[in-house]
């Protein structure tokens, strides 16, 4: 009887794999059948492996996780090898804030996975174009992105990002040229922590001559934030400084940001579930209470600065981007900073009347209320006639706090 069950499972797994791969995915709920992987607009990335001498191509679609493991009831792509756990790992694909795609792998196994030669265990990693993941003593998968982010601007990898991934050793970290995001003052690159054996995000801020006092203040605030340790606050692991950059090594989040997550609902002409909004808001307020208890205000809370630790519904969120954070925030500040459409009324008044000030902690609470409204309604509570770019502009005054 036991042999019959094993034989049935093996046959089912073989048939499942044959229908799933080689330019087609299995017609099984919730995964749609893709007759031609190369032409399908649903496929944003591919996993390619060589199995029993045959090339197999697995298509990944947005918000349709792919499970890999030994147990046919728990895994969509079944590998019967003894070294493979029942549910070994889950591959996610979500939209990135820059318009491309974030592909991540969440390890759930006992013996981990090998990412580009480095062992990863019980954590989530981002798979960039060309990365390989290997299940120990089993298959190796190569990730290929069909959708790609726009070409990034000049960054720490001058003069331009190389066509092939490059690496630089900075302290105890290996920083790659794979850019996760960029702004006016900084770029964020994917890095590997040699001590923690996990991926991290490296935020590199370009330094300017004649601004050493300002940079000293930045480093002072970073050191304060390095003392923070809360599940809903993006953790700073370390900092390094050289002649041209300040490098901040941050906890990596693989689920994108809250702004993109909210947009995924509005694109489908639906709204977030109220229970999920409650869960996200509960985490946001817990993070704020932790910050405010330490007399630190964020001063730039908005969905773009709230990261999802991993993809999927009811995500764990982390408050990020503390570039405008301020210690001793019980004191009134005359330095108006943040994003205009999330400023409280007293902050808006202080833009035009320089003698007016406001306190950072109540401002954070106002911003949190706007975020709650956006999650529930899918729109901003205040309409502006100005273009959207100006609404999201960061206003930094020159007067000292």
Architecture blueprint of SSEs:
Blueprint lengths: L1 H19 L22 E9 L2 E8 L4 E4 L7 E2 L10 E7 L5 E7 L5 E3 L2 E3 L3 E3 L5 E3 L5 E6 L21 E4 L2 E10 L3 E8 L4 E9 L5 H14 L10 E6 L3 E7 L6 H9 L7 H20 L2 E2 L8 E3 L8 E3 L6 E2 L4 E2 L11 H8 L5 E2 H18 L10 H4 L10
Parallel strand pairs: 3-4
Antiparallel strand pairs: 1-2, 1-11, 3-5, 5-6, 6-9, 7-8, 7-10, 10-11, 12-13, 13-14, 14-15, 15-17, 16-17, 18-21, 19-20, 22-23
Helix pairs in contact: 4-6
Quick recap:
This is Kinase-like domain-containing protein. With 401 residues, the protein is an alpha+beta fold. The protein is built from 7 helices and 23 strands.
Summarize this structure as a short list of keywords or feature phrases.
401 residues; alpha+beta; Tumour Suppressor Smad4; Phosphorylase Kinase, domain 1; Transferase(Phosphotransferase), domain 1; 3 domains; 6-stranded antiparallel sheet; 23 strands; 28% strand; globular; disordered N terminus; disordered C terminus
Number of helices: 7
Physical arrangement of strands within the biggest beta sheet: 2-1-11-10-7-8
Number of self-contained structural domains: 3
Query: How many extended strands?
Result: 23
Largest sheet: 6 strands, antiparallel
CATH class of the largest domain: Mainly Beta
Poorly predicted runs are 1-40, 385-401
Helices and strands, in N-to-C order? HEEEEEEEEEEEEEEEHEEHHEEEEEHEHH
Beta-strand percent range: 25-35%
Q: Tell me the Rg in angstroms.
A: 23 Å
The residue fraction in helices comes out at 10-25%
Pfam family, one: FHA
Keywords: ATP-binding, Kinase, Nucleotide-binding, Serine/threonine-protein kinase, Transferase
Protein name: Kinase-like domain-containing protein
Domain Protein kinase: 174-401
């Amino acid at each position: 009887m036991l042999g019959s069950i094993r034989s049935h499972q093996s046959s089912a797994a073989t048939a499942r794999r044959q229908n799933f791969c080689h330019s087609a995915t299995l017609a099984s709920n919730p995964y749609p059948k893709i007759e031609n992987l190369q032409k399908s607009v649903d496929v944003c990335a591919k996993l390619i492996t060589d199995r029993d001498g045959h090339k197999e191509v697995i298509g990944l679609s947005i918000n349709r996780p792919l499970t890999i493991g030994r147990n046919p009831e728990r895994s969509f792509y079944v590998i019967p090898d003894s070294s493979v756990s029942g549910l070994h790992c889950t591959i996610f694909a979500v939209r990135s804030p820059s318009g491309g795609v974030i592909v991540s792998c969440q390890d759930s196994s006992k013996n981990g996975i090998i990412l580009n030669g480095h062992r990863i265990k019980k954590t989530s990693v981002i798979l960039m174009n060309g990365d390989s993941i290997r299940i120990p003593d089993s298959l190796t998968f190569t990730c290929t992105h069909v959708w790609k982010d726009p070409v990034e601007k000049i960054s720490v990898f001058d003069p331009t990002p190389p066509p092939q991934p490059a690496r630089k050793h900075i302290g105890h970290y290996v920083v790659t040229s794979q850019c996760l995001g960029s702004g006016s003052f900084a770029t964020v690159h994917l890095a590997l922590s040699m001590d923690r054996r996990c991926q991290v995000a490296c935020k590199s801020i370009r330094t300017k001559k004649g601004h050493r006092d300002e940079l000293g203040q930045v480093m002072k605030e970073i050191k304060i934030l390095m003392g923070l340790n809360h599940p809903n606050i993006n953790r700073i692991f370390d900092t390094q400084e050289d002649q041209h950059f300040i490098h901040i090594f941050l906890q990596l989040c693989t689920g994108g940001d809250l702004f993109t997550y909210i947009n995924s609902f509005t694109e489908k002409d639906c709204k977030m579930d109220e229970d999920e909004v409650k869960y996200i808001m509960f985490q946001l307020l817990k993070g704020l209470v932790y910050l405010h208890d330490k007399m630190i205000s964020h001063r730039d809370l908005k969905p773009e600065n709230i990261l999802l630790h991993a993809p999927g519904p009811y995500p764990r969120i982390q408050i990020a981007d503390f570039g405008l954070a301020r210690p001793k925030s019980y004191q009134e500040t005359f330095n108006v900073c943040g994003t205009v459409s999330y400023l409280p009324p007293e902050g808006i008044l202080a833009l035009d009347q320089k003698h007016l000030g406001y306190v950072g902690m109540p401002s954070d609470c106002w911003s949190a209320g706007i975020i709650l409204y956006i999650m529930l309604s899918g729109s901003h509570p205040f309409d502006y006639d100005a273009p959207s770019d100006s609404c999201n502009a960061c206003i930094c005054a020159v007067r000292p706090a």
